[in-house]
């Protein structure tokens, strides 16, 4: 149950958040309205959401870091910088086999979970920095860490709605971990792959209709028309049923509202981590009334899942090109005949 609950929370974080910030002046490397950084007179200045940081050049790159979110591990792993990680929260939600090996050998310590972090252990480990998403309920914990001279860096990658913008957070990790060249190379390659795949998708003359996400209780949290899911579907040359919606957050709908819009749907994607249609019907019998449930194809995000860990929310955060490739394979399989799905799985 806990794994399913966290999967739900992850989807809602990814589709239900929006924050307005001003774009900085041209001398900043602007990743998005939420993240910018620049080198300035021997310092590295960073603006992340509502937070600002200034690091003296002799303080970076970091050599000992702690990560409190699995999604952030994706950036570290992509840069092959796992050796600088000395602590993680909730290792059971980390997919990376290399990280699990380092945990087993005690080179990486478990520093608690989303219910309670082991603050005393974190302080004793003396990390150069802690990376985490900002959660207001942990303000007292963050302040205690800061009072002990531990740098806490808040990142909002989960709020970004452009797949490639989310990927570009790797540039900041490159700056902070001494992997700037590698980060630029990886970003450029992923961006090239992504753009090439968009061109391949446009070769198809068909544009199937798409339904996304699922119900939680009595509410269907449908991705808004400007969310990352909607953007992926558009880039994969398909027609999302809420494509004209202007929200960057989830749109709450009843089953009846979704049913009314679900005629002529060929594909249902991001249908949780279900492994069978029978399982879906046991959770919500109303699904059986949808034409796409009976006549179309349904895909979840359990292609790379081990117990509580799901790589879609780890490496998939960085590898937007691979996620897009999965969507294209689903919507236009004839365009990628030899490719096998990575993060997605068909629910039968």
From TrEMBL:
Highest taxon, organism lineage: Bacteria
PROSITE patterns the UniProt entry points to: FE_B12_PBP (PS50983)
Coiled coil: none
Classification via Pfam families: Peripla_BP_2
Lineage, highest ranks first: Bacteria, Pseudomonadati, Bacteroidota, Flavobacteriia, Flavobacteriales
Positions of the Fe/B12 periplasmic-binding domain: 64-335
GO biological process terms, semicolon-separated: cellular response to iron ion
InterPro entries: ABC_Transporter_SBP (IPR050902), ABC_transptr_periplasmic_BD (IPR002491)
The protein's name in its UniProt record: ABC-type Fe3+-citrate transport system, periplasmic component
